[in-house]
Structures are given as structure tokens and as C-alpha cells.
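Q: Got a minute? One more chain.
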Amino acid sequence: MHRGYVKLFRKIRDSHVWPKDREFTPLEAWIDLLMMARHDPEPIEIKIRLYGGVSCGQGQIVTSLRKLGERWNWGKNRVRRFLNMYEARSQIGTEAVRNATRITICNYSTYNDKRDTSRDAKRDSSGTVAGRKRDTIEEECKKNGENEKKTSAAHSCASDAEKIYQAYPRKVGKRAALAAISRALGRLGKVGPHGNLGPWLWLLERVKKFAESPEGRSGQYCLHPERWFDKGRYDDDESEWQRKEPETDRNRNAGAGDGNSQQTNDGTKIDPNTGQVIPKWNIPSR
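A: Always. Here it is, folded:
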């Protein structure tokens, strides 16, 4: 019940409930100050006899301690103490101008929120100013929360791609490989579920199986990770990963221990010591 506000019309001072010819309480004096302040945004000039005019803007009062004392049935010193107290609380500001005192209500707009009647008529549907402000804050919080979720999702995606990259048997071109993995995850996410596994877990399992296959263990002959993921090789039948070692390498390794040159399918021979192909014209005749 301590939020919001009520409209207090100035003509309440003409009501029988408003103090007449009696001493004001501090609360009544404060309310009277608020109602005395100029509400129109257009400044005017208050004439001071023998001293010319004094400007009075919105939220301001041009008066004197004597007049306020007469108005509230207070002594001049009490009026001064009252104004000093509210000035110390940063609720008003006072200044002496041409044999008068100009009082400025701080944050006057919070006491006199000027709105047209058409908006007041729609108040029930659009909500109060405080309600709209609260809704705006909630919307901002929601947006910030969504942004945080997006940031968190981006970090999670990068972490997932890193784990898949580490599972791939060949560690080259990491930046390009991570980008290719992210693209692959995006494509898999659009396709839909893969059994009971999500895209990331399914792809990780496929990479682990490839790493254990002969092609995954082929060292320098293993495809670069960027090309492997971009070409969608994770969708290959596992039998395609059973690639054997190249013929020349197999012959080279087979002949390395017996000291004899090995012959390839095309009839050329390989030196077992150097691994180099022996030209036909250097092969001794038998």
C-alpha cells in the first residue's frame, strides 16, 4: 500500500477539512507547499513591489518567510527551521531573490505527473506509470536473460566442438576444424534425433568409432578434420573406414627385414635399405 499515488486537487484548500485560522502541522505545511508550487511548465514573472519581477518556473514558489508564517500560523523562526530541514533532506532548494524567497520543489514531476485525460481514460488497459515502468524493467531483464542464455549456448557449443575435435585422430587445422564441426552439428540438428542420442553425442560416438578404424589409425593418410566433417564422412558406412595401408608401404615394410629387394605389381623393385624405387636399368641381370 506504499506504492503509487493519489490525485489531490488544490481546491481541497477551500474545503471545510482544510485548516482555517489554526496552526498547521508539518505535514499540512508540506502538502501546502506542493500545492502552492507552479504546475505549468511555462515560467512567469512575479512582481515584487519596489524590487521588480522575479522568475517563477514549474515546481517553484516565490514568497517570503513572513507570508508563510501568516499562512501557517507559525513564527518566522519556525518557518525557517522547517525549510532548512527539508532542504537538508534534498526535498527543496531555497534562494533569496529581491527581498523574497524562491523555493524549488526537488523532483517536482514525481508529485505532479501531468497527463492528458485520454491517457487517464485508458489507464485500466495500459496500466499506471509505475506499472509500465515495471513492465519495461521486466522486459529488459528478460532480454538480458535471453542474451545470457545465447552466450551460454555459444560457450557450450564451442566446448562440444572442442571435445569432438579432441576425439578425432588427426590434430591439424584446429580453428578450421572447430568451425567445420559446428557446421556439422548445425546440419545434424536440423535433421532431427539420431536414435536416442542428440546430435552432439551421436557425432562424438561416430568420431570415436572412426578413430578406432584402420583409416582413422592411418596417420598422415587420415583425412584432415575440416574436410572429414565438411564432407559428412561421419555418415559413411563403417566398412568404408576399413581402408588398408597403401601397397607400396606394405611392400616396403615387408621387405625391410630380409635384405632382399621387393617387387611391386608393375614389376619395379624397391631397395629395402633406402625404400627408393630401383630403376629398371639399374637392376642387375641374372
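A: The chain has three domains: 10-115, 129-241, 247-282.
Q: Perfect, thanks.
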